[in-house]
Amino acid sequence: xxxxxxxxxxxxxxxxxxxxxxxxxxxxxxxxxxxxxxxxxxxxxxxxxxxxxxxxxxxxxxxxxxxxxxxxxxxxxxxxxxxxxxxxxxxxxxxxxxxxxxxxxxxxxxxxxxxxxxxxxxxxxxxxxxxxxxxxxxxxxxxxxxxxxxxxxxxxxxxxxxxxxxxxxxxxxxxxxxxxxxxxxxxxxxxxxxxxxxxxxxxxxxxxxxxxxxxxxxxxxxxxxxxxx
Length: 229
Hints:
The protein is mainly β. It has one domain (4-171, 214-218): Alpha-Beta Plaits (2-Layer Sandwich). 12% of the residues lie in helices and 46% in strands. The strands form 2 sheets. Strands 1, 2, 3, 4, 5, 8, 9, 10, 11 and 12 form a 10-stranded mixed beta sheet that branches. A two-stranded antiparallel sheet has the order 6-7.
């Protein structure tokens, strides 16, 4: 199993706490699900799954507050017209600013991976794409409007040191578990053999107790008893 490291940074970030229903308030540190999304932005295939191992905080944790316009409902294609001015909502947000992280993750083959898929093939694809700065879509820091820059740090290369700070972060969102087998649930985009497809199922959040130790957030494995729903 080979672990890859990406350096990711940007001007703003918002890793929204799910318990905040009205205003957007960010976690102090990038969540594992946001880190996974960065790796998927560089390389996503239905045959592989990214597992985040740890997140290193490079810049001091700084905050800023903004107000921004959001849309209060979704447009339904073919059913009715959608007027932004009638659905506009102004919300406050407590965001992180000037963020930079080293995120470490490894890939595993999904049980549905075909015989023609091998770990070596996908590892070569990731290394080739990340070395050139290529990505499937632009990585972002929690919200899509907060786009980010990324750089692959090969094994043995020079890496920045995390901050000298230790703090308990409390309960943090680990990831969303999607189960397409259950009908009558929510609709979401799931990984299938033919690529992304809209399926109906059940979506459940999972959490863990997070703590940064000298700037390092160690992420438990998905099957660890530390992760619970």
